[in-house]
Design brief:
The protein has helices at 44-56, 65-70, 80-96, 114-131, 133-136, 151-161, 179-199, 205-210, 213-223; strands at residues 9-17, 29-38, 100-107, 141-145, 168-170, 239-241. A 6-stranded mixed sheet has the order 5-4-1-2-3-6, sandwiched between helices. The protein is an alpha/beta fold and 242 residues long. Helix 1 packs antiparallel against helix 3 (80-96). The chain has one domain (9-43, 91-241): Nucleotidyltransferase, domain 5. Helices cover 44% and strands 16% of the residues. It is globular and about 45 Å long.
Length: 242
């Protein structure tokens, strides 16, 4: 059946940082970030401007914050100054587009195994949907972009969002084309950085060289109004919802 042009679609791009492991070498934090975009809000102009900026900087690849920061992958042969310019181009794009962000960063010290961490993620996303159910249920289709990078998170996403109208999760999609998935990658890093700032947790040497305190304060302030509206019902737990 052909869908009516009046039908409303919500796109949710999800990325994670960290892993479910609890070995001595595993990350201290686990985080998820959602980029929530109403399909009717066009961002074509902003995408075009971003691609022009990348082209001017000689970058034609897919933005990935970890690779950019540590000069890996497609950023291996790009100098630090240019990598910073690429970062700020993506950051300005994220700041200007009409989307909402929702992030939760979990300190794994308070979780003693992967199942406990998975339960906390489930509770967090369930609270998000339940507390804003009128908003989420107002859409005819809810499409989640998550590539099943981690099967435990993928199963949580399906369990939580499958109650919504027209829910589908897209596993295979072009990461280069879907700039909002790249923004989700950016947000997982920025929100982890902000949590470190708030909790006075030491940055890695690379983070400290790449950013300064002014940068981090500016990130917090400029993104504040783009955060997905929070309810005072959100469950209190040993993690940070940003």
């Amino acid at each position: 059946m052909k869908k009516s042009s009046s039908q409303r679609r919500l796109n949710i791009f999800i990325d994670e940082t960290g892993e479910f492991g609890f070995s001595g070498k595993s990350a201290k934090f686990y985080g998820i970030s959602l980029v929530i975009h109403e399909q009717n809000d066009s961002i074509e102009k902003e995408i075009s401007n971003l691609e022009k900026k990348f082209e001017q900087l000689g970058f034609f690849g897919t933005f990935h914050m970890g690779d950019l920061l540590y000069s890996h992958g497609e950023f291996k042969n790009i100098d630090a100054t240019t990598r910073k310019r690429i970062f700020f181009a993506m950051y300005d794009f994220a700041r200007k587009i009409k989307v909402k962000y929702y992030s939760a960063i979990f300190e794994k010290t308070f979780s003693n195994n992967p199942d406990t961490l998975k339960k906390k993620i489930y509770m967090t996303l369930t609270d998000l949907v339940n507390n804003h159910f009128d908003y989420f249920s107002s859409f005819d289709d809810v499409i989640v972009y998550y590539d099943s990078g981690q099967s435990k998170l993928a199963s949580v996403i399906d369990d939580v969002f499958s109650i919504l109208n027209g829910y589908r999760r897209k596993v295979r999609f072009d990461h280069y084309e879907k700039k909002l998935f790249q923004v989700a990658d950016l947000m997982t890093f920025l929100d982890k950085l902000m949590l470190k700032y708030d909790s006075r947790t030491k940055y890695t040497d690379t983070e400290a060289r790449f950013f300064n305190i002014y940068n981090i304060r500016s990130f917090k302030k400029s993104l504040k109004n783009s955060r997905f509206e929070k309810s005072n019902k959100i469950r209190k737990a040993p993690f940070r919802v940003l």
